[in-house]
Amino acid sequence: MATISPTSDFVATPSAASPAVARARDPRLDFYRGIAMFIILVAHIPFNAWSSWIPARFGWSDATEIFVFCSGMASAIAFGGAFARMGWPMGTARVAYRVWQVYWAHIGLFFFVAMMMAALDTYGAFDKSYVDSLNLGRFFANPMPQIVGIFTLTYVPNYFDILPMYLVVLALMPLFMALSRIGFAPVAGASIAIWLAANIGLLSIPAEPWSDRPWFFNPFGWQLLFFTGFAFMRGWIPAPPVSRSLIWAAAAFLVLTAPFGSWKVFQWVNAASPDLGAAFREIWTMFSTLEKETGFSLRNKTEFGVLRYVHFLSLAYLAWVAAGEGGRRLQATGTGVAADIWRNLLKVITKVGQQSLAVFVFSMAIARLLGFVLDQTGRSPATVLLVNLTGFVMIIAIAYIAAWFKSQPWRGKRA
Q1: Residue 73 lies in a domain
Q2: Which of 4, 186, 302, 314 has the most crowded CB, counting CB atoms within 10 A?
Q3: How far, rounded to the nearest angstrom, does the alpha carbon of residue 314 sit from its chain's CA centroid?
Q4: Could you tell me the pTM of the whole model?
Q5: What percentage of the chain reaches a pLDDT higher than 70?
Q6: The domain containing residue 267 runs over which residues?
Q7: φ, ψ (nearest 5 deg) of residue 301
């Protein structure tokens, strides 16, 4: 294997029980998580033409994987460090506090969006029901049991399913930190076992009491990706070597699987060569047949199928190599207008990534309102451009506002 420049800029430790921890904020982490926040906003604006060009249209994985993986890495710094410094009980308390925050963020997001949709239907004379567009008709028709369901997470409507998944995954952290005292093997074994159970249908959570629909994001499947990021940042898994062989292998996997992981790419291939498209259709059918016969998810987003995992790891490896050791290639070292623009852009994207929870909650709320604006103004290229850019400006503003409040400027500077 031809090596370009081996690196170990993830902190590697000899065992999972080792107290050595990376505490510094990795610039690549915030940069890529910031990129994911912009993509998530674009993806959630209803009937947004820009959503035809997000990563989800070109492969199995998408911005959700970026968010979950980077959240695992960030949690290794914020919460893993608390376990290392203060012990298991205080580390668990730190995680419980974050779960509490995410829980109330979920509750607030649901009621705010529900209120907006109700206001549009109540006070506007539109040719569609915005309540029904989110499938909230049953909630408003019989609110009392549904309010109980919202607070107990036994009623999790689609669109409001990412934060519940995230808080359950966070709640698993004390278990994995306890296992890490034995070593990394029990951690990896438990994570893989839970993921396998989810992918064969043994572990799921019902999303509503009147149907068999499960949570769209099964936390027992998605925890594998979260704790992969967590393990890399804790040093439980060493950084992969930077090599031409791995780079070409990852790139080849992304390109060659695109027609099978993306309907959009398949249509391009089919238009260029119907015979090749017919052959690809057979492979699509083979995937479906194999999943039905084995009961094992290969591509499913709900259970986080194995092909999504491999696809994301391939993409993440290329992004990690592209950023360079410590993110040095992200930094603009030159002079001139272009370098200044990139430095400012990097600063803004990083700020959005640093405040990802506040930005995510706000973007999910504002996306519905931006979709309403497009409904009223039309979806010409100019209006779509204006609405998306307005959304970008708004989430950037929220990131800076959240950072300002977190700094607690009212305390003043100590003499």
Answers
A1: no
A2: 314
A3: 16
A4: 0.86
A5: 93
A6: 249-327
A7: -75, -35
- Asked if 226 and 358 sit in the same domain, the reply is no
Domain membership flag for residue 15: no
Q: Which two tokens stand for residue 131?
A: 């309540």
Q: Enter the tokens of residue 3.
A: 């090596």
Phi-psi map region of 407: left, alpha, beta (phi>0 left; psi -120 to 50 alpha): alpha
Helix (H) or strand (E) holding 315: helix 306-323
Report the sign of the C-alpha dihedral through residues 249, 74, 327, 183, in that order.
negative
Winning range, highest mean pLDDT, from 11-15, 181-185, 189-193: 189-193
pLDDT tens figures, 225-244 = 999 999 999 989 988 888 99
| CB 105 within 8 Å of CB 163 | yes
The pLDDT assigned to 176 comes to 95
231 and 138 housed in the same domain: yes
As a whole number of angstroms, the distance between CA 390 and CA 392 comes to 5
Number of structural domains (the chain) is 3
Instruction: Tell me which amino acid residue 121 is.
Output: D
In a domain, 155, yes or no: yes
| Helical packing angle, 27-44 and 356-377, nearest 10° | 30
Same domain, residue pair 227 and 93 = yes
In three-state secondary structure terms, 209 is coil
